[in-house]
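Message: A physicist's question: would you kindly supply an amino acid chain plus fold tokens?
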Amino acid sequence: MDGTAKAAGCALIVIDMINTYDHEDAELLVPSTRRVVPVLADLIGRARAAQVPVVYANDNFGLWRSHHGELLESALSRPYADLIEPIRPDDESLFVVKARHSIFYETPLSYLLWRLGAGHVVLSGQVTEQCVLYSALDAHIRHLEVTVPRDAVASIHPRLADAALEMMERNMGARIVMAQDIAFLGTRWPVSDGHQPGGRA
């Protein structure tokens, strides 16, 4: 399947990549993240070049007084700053602070996407079998088209990540592709075999 995203109606979402990696299971997550970061950095660069909005949806680490600048500074001051620097937000990036798994739960993201005219989200970041999965479900029930580049999402448990990607594809109508196959161009995803984009009923 072609990997073309309509620039005017698409947003790239970067999930939980501003991270201190001092939490449970971090030792299992970091190797996967290291593989993902170069791919994600390229994807972010291509989205920016095509003027596709890049939205960072990030956990607040329970620091309710923190804003996104403080979260970024905290992550960059820790031992895994090399995982942050290549994908750090620029001055044009948008930022949504979240407290739970889904990027939509009690956040303004739905309204932000509406204001951007984005009916198609490309979900990247971590963790595939947790926050990416739950965010894909919430995007689907909001009738958003969903694409997940399998090499731009990091996991803790590869077997569960594979199952999560299959669930997103089968149950949520998500397109599971390689990041290099995503072209942020001014044309819509093709519709084939009578399948409606986003798996809508």
